[in-house]
Amino acid sequence: MDKLEVFKQKINHFLSQENFNNHPANLYEPIEYTLSLGGKRLRPILTLAACDLFGGNIDDALKPAIGIEIFHNFTLLHDDIMDDAPQRRGQETVYKKWNSNIAILSGDTMFAIAFKYISQANSKTLPEILSTFAQTAIEVCEGQQYDMDFESKDDVTIREYLKMIRLKTAVLLGASLKIGALVSNATTDESALIYDFGVNAGIAFQLKDDWLDAFGNEDKFGKSIGGDIIANKKTYLFLKCFEKASSTDRDRLIELFSDKQMNPEIKIDKVLGLYEKYHVKKESTREMEHFFNLALAAIKMTSASQNKKDILIGFAEWLYKRDH
Amino acid sequence: MDKLEVFKQKINHFLSQENFNNHPANLYEPIEYTLSLGGKRLRPILTLAACDLFGGNIDDALKPAIGIEIFHNFTLLHDDIMDDAPQRRGQETVYKKWNSNIAILSGDTMFAIAFKYISQANSKTLPEILSTFAQTAIEVCEGQQYDMDFESKDDVTIREYLKMIRLKTAVLLGASLKIGALVSNATTDESALIYDFGVNAGIAFQLKDDWLDAFGNEDKFGKSIGGDIIANKKTYLFLKCFEKASSTDRDRLIELFSDKQMNPEIKIDKVLGLYEKYHVKKESTREMEHFFNLALAAIKMTSASQNKKDILIGFAEWLYKRDH
Q1: Residue B22 covered by a domain
Q2: Does some domain include residue B221?
Q3: ipTM computed for the complex
Q4: Could you tell me the residue range of the domain that residue B126 belongs to?
Q5: Residue A26 near chain B (CB below 8 Å)
Q6: Which of B19, B22, B70, B108 best probes binding to A when mutated, by most A CB atoms within 10 angstroms?
Q7: How far is residue A126's CA from residue A142's CA, in Å, rounded to a whole number?
Q8: Chain B interface mutation, best of A105, A125, A166, A171, highest count of B Cβ atoms under 10 Å
Q9: pTM recorded for the entire structure
Q10: How far apart are the two ends of chain A, measured CA to CA in Å?
Q11: Which residues on chain B are in Cβ contact (under 8 Å) with A148?
């Protein structure tokens, strides 16, 4: 079993041992439900891996890793209320299964529990761990607000979009790694480099998500292809197409992305036709490669041993090259 | 000017200097709005006062004090969504002025900002400050959930009610004091005593709030008398009356507290009549005195100088004996 799988099991074991089954039940049942839905446990794995990368004892990083995972799940819980999302990981969202008041409050509680675990980091760098985490939490909220703002904004630029996904998704991946590094007492420079690795890999990861929605293999991806198109979501692909398209095609694209009536298959077909015409697949792949290379450059500059770097590089490659 | 007024000015000055006017505007404008609505600044004053009580430098306690005040305002912001409250401190609530998604997310951001400030406590007791704060935040959420649960629960006991107000209101007052004490490097015992002082005074404070709603002077209290009665809120007064009433009067009380049609003045009059019949005013005063005396006993056991204790005792007396 590879090292990252061991880390994942360690995290799932810890979570299964923790007792979230407290009173009042209306507060804690949604928390236990949310944490039992599973998921990739990407962020806490990164925390343990970064601690290991710089020679730390991963047991010292376990509690902050758990805190980060709980924080991430809290953001999903509140996002689902805001996005009116009925399902998460194939199950009903807390907001639908209970109600929005319970989802607000159990989310708030998860945020507090997350901080409790982060605060238990066994490290002389605790103040820096905390400031990294608090700043990241603020930025994740900013990213979600930009994402909501973009729904009604017609002139979103690619630069603004990249800033939004950096805040909403990438900084937490960077912070997960940085906190692991800080636990291992890595230097400020090394911690900053591993943060950059995570943020840039995170942007590539999110761009890949957009990419898979349009060009992925439906069987493997699990979601229907074209979900973002049907939802009129202004992803990187839409924005790049819009940037490159002729005036007539821009109008067509806007028309397609305003339509809520058109047969979905026809709509997806027409949009993909425009993406093909303007080489959006290639452009998007180039952008992903750009960020992936920035990530590689950052981790290469760290002083960690090559075989340990290879684990994280392999993980980022897997995220980036995945076809589902 | 008395010392507590100096503390309050220090807190308001700090808040006015901080720049919450960031981007995205939809996230930060509600935060700036909320913090500009004022309020008694009770909790951060207590933090500075407890730091001063044990001989600490109050400047070291300023950032955690600000963090506690921002946390408190975050809880009000989210509570207003859950309670569907249109006004707060005489102004529109964030939820009404913007919308509930913005209120959820700007609240989340305030929680993260609160932790940022708490984490900046300049003290070797930082881990204990953090665990106190995180645990308290969890308990405040539990209290709010119990409060919501009680709306549809017909057999709430006085014991359960006291537990609810302890969690929802009193523990944060206790933690505000304890964190100030920890900043001043007070001993574990002293910190625990000042926490007990705050929790017990906080319960008395909340009982007084209930009391004022029924027996207060409308001109001074600011709110209409009987608001809790009109809202069918099961306060201490209702529960005590129910506990003591005859079977017939219990039925009348339940009937009155189920009614949403009756003329408010008549309803208030009838309920106050029952409260008088069962000496609820006296019983409630006795309960307040009990908690106030527990608070006094706790602070008396600390080793602080009498003149400094007197400031906090005076403050608690003012809260407890206020007529508005």
Answers
A1: yes
A2: yes
A3: 0.95
A4: 1-131
A5: yes
A6: B108
A7: 24
A8: A105
A9: 0.95
A10: 22
A11: 26, 101, 105
